[in-house]
Amino acid sequence: QKNPKVKEATSAHPTASHTSLRQNLTLSDWLTVFAYIDAHQAMPQCDIVNHFKTLQSGALIFTQSTLSRKLKERLTLEARINDNPNALSSKRPRIVTRPDVDRALFLWVRHMEEKGEHVNGPMLKEKRQRFEELFEVPEGEQLSGDGWLAPFCKAYKIREHRRHGEAGSVDLDAVEVERKRCEEILSKYTPRDRWNFDETSFFPL
């Protein structure tokens, strides 16, 4: 006697399959949510949550409590875009202790790139230290080590270039010592009495 086949139980509510469902929202995602809220100001927050959760493409998953918290942070989130447009793709804000130093360092990197120069980790660390001294950053707020480098480069989309050969063999510490020695010597003379002899071989004496 053959046993009758028993059909496997199935759910009466099939799980929706979203091709691009996201739970970790980026800043750009939250701006999309804010824009929808502005266009539907009478809609309750619970309905807004369900609307984005049930989108057939690009569903965004978040709770009502998260939405309420993000609405309170809206001005701060939008200000991040003005300070750093690249933050649109980030999920969490990068901790910045001194935005003025970060901004100065970024502008210096852009200036170097416009000149066709490449920057690397040691150069960024050295330049940051100079800017911290220039802006009179308290010692307790100064950043040391390499921990800040990767987040900084990622936030501003900076690629670190490593030098090889003769350029890569430069001792940056020795360069800094020599730079300070030259500054001390030059401080004894007025700018009009300082002569730059670089490329003077092109001119007959």
The percentage helix is 40-55%
- Span between termini: 115 Å
Total helices: the number is 9
Rg to the nearest angstrom? Answer: 28 Å
**Major sheet, described briefly?**
none
Question: What is the H/E order?
Answer: HHHHHHHHH
Strand content: under 5%
Shape: elongated
Mean pLDDT: 75
Short summary of the structure?
This protein is mainly alpha-helical and 205 residues long. The chain is built from nine helices and no strands. Helix 5 (99-114) crosses helix 6.
Please explain how this structure is put together.
With 205 residues, this protein is mainly α. The protein contains nine helices and no strands. The longest helix has 16 residues, at 99-114. The termini are far apart. The model is unreliable at 6-19 (pLDDT under 50).
Give the SSE map:
Elements: H1 27-39, H2 45-53, H3 64-72, H4 74-83, H5 99-114, H6 121-134, H7 149-155, H8 165-168, H9 172-186
How would you describe this structure in keywords?
elongated; 47% helix; mainly alpha; 9 helices; single chain; 205 residues
